[in-house]
Design goal:
Layout lengths: L2 H15 L18 H12 L3 H7 L6 H15 L13 E3 L6 H8 L6 E4 L5 H7 L3 H9 L4 E4 L11 E5 L6 E5 L1 E7 L10 H22 E12 L9 H6 L3 E9 L35 E8 L19 E2 L14 H9 L17
């Protein structure tokens, strides 16, 4: 065997002794594991703190799910307390109060001492025909000094609740409203028509005239509060726009919660629902269990001021304490256009449409 062959055997023996089972690996021209880039990457990693030290140095970030959950809990807690839009010592006017159960609750459970409850019916006998249980509520209201019930009051034509003062120099008589809160719960003209468009128009007329008359009775800094059921057809009434045409603006809105008024029961405009025997139906529809919302309106310019430069910009006038709502600040085409639109329905009648009663 020559020197060349012996050298190969010697190399194989050395490789076997070191643990290799085959010929020595060929020398690679490039090394992918120890180049400058890899060395720099390893150096950067070595300078970073370990996971345990980073965790101890700063609190872990909140996930999006935990953040949204905490916000939801905060919102529920914030709105758990119901909104009561009046104080016991304020002058309160209830318009179209139906069976007077709402007024009785304000007197008995909220201790209101300056309350005037009005109904559309001409007297107690007519009111009792529609609501047989109403006399008990009348007694509760009348028993409190400063509280009373007025009959034959039309929400569309009611006389102003105001006091008059005469200027000694000019002789001009000025009229100032006396009511701090004017409340109209679930206004409705009544009737059994299935024509939704016509019902919407009649109820819009009712609200427009109510807002105009309420404006005259509203004390400085006072508010008008209207409660409606949520959803259609009530959303079709566009109550915000109707109020705007009467120089009122929405200050805020909130969920109406009937449980805040013990003893209150929703009363329908047509009276108590009766069965075939003429008795009050026990399983009748209960409006107090439906979702409803109250809207608080105030005068747009409660304290008149001269216009300042740049004051022509629109402002946000509605805030909600229960949920976010987008408020459209488009003022429409004017009150005359609205009245013309509401008044040109000359065809058809709705049963009891002339009753400007409530659905309270």
């Amino acid at each position: 065997m020559g020197k060349k062959g012996g050298g190969r055997l010697l190399q194989a023996a050395k490789a076997a002794k070191q643990g290799g089972g085959g010929p020595p690996a060929k020398k690679q021209k490039k090394s992918h594991g120890s180049g400058p880039a890899q060395h720099q990457k390893q150096k950067q990693q070595s300078t970073k703190p370990s996971a345990s030290s980073a965790a101890s140095a700063a609190p872990p970030p909140l996930s999006s799910s935990s953040t949204s959950g905490s916000k939801k809990q905060h919102k529920q807690k914030q709105h758990s307390d119901p909104t009561i839009p009046f104080s016991p010592d304020e002058n309160i006017l209830l318009v179209g109060d139906g069976d007077l159960s709402f007024a009785a609750s304000l007197v008995e459970h909220h201790h209101c001492t300056n309350l005037t409850a009005t109904v559309y019916e001409k007297d107690l006998d007519e009111l009792s025909t529609k609501y047989p249980h109403v006399r008990a509520n009348v007694d509760k209201i009348s028993a409190v000094p400063g509280c009373k019930v007025l009959y034959n009051v039309d929400a569309r034509r009611m006389a102003p609740f105001a006091h008059k003062t005469k200027d000694k120099q000019t002789g001009r008589v000025e009229q100032t409203g006396t009511m701090d809160r004017i409340i109209f719960n679930f206004p409705h003209v009544g009737g059994k028509s299935t024509d939704v468009n016509r019902q919407v128009r009649y109820n819009q007329e009712l609200l427009v005239n109510f807002f105009k008359r309420s404006f005259l009775s509203l004390a400085p800094g006072g508010s008008v509060i209207v409660t409606l059921f949520e959803g259609e057809p009530y959303t079709l009434w566009n109550i915000r726009d109707l109020a705007r045409h009467s120089d009122l603006a929405v200050e805020k809105s909130f969920k109406f919660q009937a449980r805040v008024y013990p003893g209150y029961h929703h009363a329908r405009t047509l009276g108590v629902v009766k069965n075939k025997k003429g008795e009050a139906a026990e399983g009748a529809w209960k409006g107090e269990e439906r979702p409803a919302r109250s809207y608080v309106f105030v005068r747009k310019d409660d304290v008149p001021k001269p216009p300042a430069p740049g004051m022509g910009k629109k402002r946000k006038v509605e805030e909600s304490d229960d949920e976010d709502e987008e408020e459209d600040d488009d003022w429409g085409s004017g009150e005359d256009d609205l009245e013309e639109e509401l008044g040109d329905d000359a065809e058809g009648d709705v049963d009891d449409a002339e009753d400007a009663a409530d659905d309270n």
